[in-house]
Design goal:
The complex is a heterodimer of chains A (363) and B (624). With 363 residues, chain A is mainly α. Chain A is built from 14 helices and 3 strands. The two termini of chain A are 13 Å apart. Chain B is α+β, with helices and mostly antiparallel strands. In chain B, strand 20 and strand 21 form a beta hairpin. The termini of chain B are far apart. Classes of the chains: A mainly alpha (363), B alpha+beta (624).
Amino acid sequence: MARYRSFRDLDWPLLIISLIICSLGVLQIYSATHGDTPWHNAWWKQIIYIVIGLGLMWLTTSVDYHTLLGQVPILYTLSVLGLIATVAVGNVVFHARRWIHLFGVSFQISEFVKLVIILLVARYLSELKSDEVSARDLLKLGGLVAIPVALVYYQPDLGTAITCVSVLAAGILLAGLRWQYVAGIALACALALPVGWYLIKDYQRARFLTFRDPSLDPRGAGYQVIQSKIAIGHGGIWGAGLTKGTQTQLRFLPAAHNDLIFSGFAEEHGFVGVVVALGLYFLLLMQIVQNAQTAPDRAGMYICMGVGALLLCHLLVNVGMVAGEMPLTGIPLPLMSAGGSITMSVFVMLGLVNNVRLRRFAS
Amino acid sequence: MPPVEPERQQSRDAAPSRLFRDDTRFALGRIAVFQYLTVVVFLFLIGGFWVLQIRDEKMNSELAERNRIKTIPLLAPRGKILDRDGRIIVDNHSAFEFRILRDTLKPEHIAAIASGLNMTPDEIRAPLARAESRRLPKYFPVLIKQELTPSELAFVESHNDPDTFPEMELIANQSRLYPQGGLAAHAIGYVGEVSDQELNTTEFAKYSQGDKVGKEGLERQYNDLLMGIDGQRQVEVDSMGREHTQMRSKDFTPGNNLQLTLDLDLQAVAELAMEGRRGAVVALDPRNGEVLAMVSRPAFDPNLFTRRISRSDWKELTDNPDNPLMNRAIQAQFAPGSTFKPIVTIAGLETGMLEPEKTVSCPGGATFYGHYFKCDEVHGTVDLHRAIVHSCDTFFFTVGNHIGIDRIAEYAELAGIGKKTGVDLPNEKDGLMPSPHWKLRVQREKWYAGETISVAIGQGAVTVTPIQLASVLGGLVSGGVWYKPHLVKNAHIDPPRRADFHPENVATIVSAMCGVVNEGGTGAGASIPGLEICGKTGTAQRISNELAKSNKALALTMRDNGWFVGFAPRENPEIVVVALWEGGGKGAFSAPLVRDVIKAYVDKKARREHPGPEQLSLFAEPKR
């Protein structure tokens, strides 16, 4: 197999775009944390994560994705067990159990779960005999995805749960779904909304209410949204300049190197910077879609589209959140936010895309 | 494209398990849908940024500035109030006031803060609610308490950190320090936080909530002059409220000092004279209208008002039947009694209705229009001089009846009775000079001739305030020149009102008033050997003789008011003093009060002219 792998055949545009985004992220992390803060070394840690991520990406391309798909049952079992372990013994950070300590390193299992769900959906859908997803398959695949998603939601990590569901949704819609089912699911969701309102946690309800009107609780749940919007608006067209944004520098913006990194970026680089950054993300997504179009088989196509759907959903939820267009759900911005798990998992996803690309002439 | 080897071609047919289907063409359309969806998502996101960064940039930048810039008010001290010699009457002292920032306020903190400041939670909530209803900006700190005690200050300083109570704010200011014992309290007035009702009036509309403004007296009259202009300091703060850099600051402009015409020495003497009594003393310089002393008793402590006055203190002041808050010097309106006789005299002499040689026989009273009017005693045959010296009512019943109410009223109004003097204090009262015209207009009744008899001795409907009486008689004995009384020095002096009285008529009256004090008259209590003090007593009934007889208890509480008007020297008087002792019983009893003030004036003048080593003064005088 090794002869199909060569640096020359990697998706270089994809790689270059993602590295440009990463460097914007590192700069912004530096700007948001430099000086006398507990996170002042987050920017070079992030560089290390990126390097490790690149290594993992290369490693991911080395195993034929068909082989990976063959291991889905094992990976799936591992991820569910990992999630159960997280819920049981994980570290509580900001009222949520998302981290698990192993060999002195903290892991966020849900990042691994995202990868597994992409592979799971790809394998299940590519094994379908018909050109349409039957009700039975729908329930079966939905159930399989629902177990880890429910565990992720229980952490609670609504944002990651939503991104996982987006992979499933994209896969099913690609595989073909009768419009009656689509309508049925939509109707069921509409009916489930009032029920869901009682099922979600209090703080999530508060977040949703404050999303509608942040001034309801300007010091509490609405604070992040208000400050984030102020920071973005303060940037104007050209931005305040790196390390010059007062909202970021004077810490009115909470988690400015993390979930809200894009609002700090918007304050310091302005609308022009935002358009450039979002443009890069758009190119990145289009590059992934192009790989799906040229994939050698359905499985490869589903993998690429799963990665694309997940990243798009991530972007929508995170960037929409900082701009006040989406309710507050604490998920990071892929490739920019500081964080080892998310950075590495995104590079593994890019590895999966490259994996498919490298084998596009194989079958 | 890498070259495809033959055997690879082979394995391609066999090797990939049939697990996976390799036709992807079916999905191309749906992938295109995904691409369009991506475009939509990105346009949606960019739209959001366009709104925030382009459309609302100004608003958001202002909010960002408001986040990082904290404005700390620098409160301007009020001007000091000085007496005519430049001695300080009202000073300031450093204090701290406590404010709350509403944009960082957590409602659950209120109870804890209140207990640290010895307040009830509602006392904190009330001003916050008022600020809310007045739509003050959120970042504007709301005044909660003034003049913190040392323990309260310690509480605020030790808890004023971002982790405990970030909403607390201490601001240094200058607080008012008034003389103890209510010295000149009514003339000076006091300051307090401007109230909501006041903010809705034109006088106070230019101020804002939390401003300290003059509420009464000179503090109110000259508030604009005394109040400085607050400055402010701007600092850059982070989200924890820590100050980073000083940005810009605008220093305050302190208020102007106010120099009064009051003389602390005279004031102190007058205060002591009135101690324990109810009434007022006013000392004027008739040559220019300067008020040298103004006392009203009972007094209050203006220092109570510099913090927010407590409910119980306020109740005590307002429920007191003696009404300590009233400035009797300008607000007490009482019948002038016999102090009105010089007015009747000048009216008679100037109109020719009273011959200077006129004599009347006093058998202890006389009957007019079917009523018997009683005199104090049997005076026998009295001329004008003796009638004033011994305050014979029978004489004035007779001549007053002859002169007629219209002429009396004309001259009384000319002298200023029934009109505000225009002194520079708020809420001066008018007094009243009755006349047939007035009665018809106000009471819609005819004037009874018998009323003229009462008015002729300063009874009936005629009323004056102490400052009015001082101004009226001071101007009269100066030959008919009335300056507007005023308390602030160097103020523009309005040209006086003048009446061209014949000098010999004025001299006749002055001579008689000199006799009141120095010829064994009713005002003998005001005499000082070697000084020509002149004056006139007045004993004004507050209830009729018949009522007093039938109700002894009422007669006790409604004892006659004692007036005394004194001036010195006889020629070109320099000081005129009026003392009103409510319920004093007799005008003669008020004479010594006036004497003390005039003596203090004369003594001080003598010391100034012949300075000696053994000077004693109640107050240290500045070196000159």
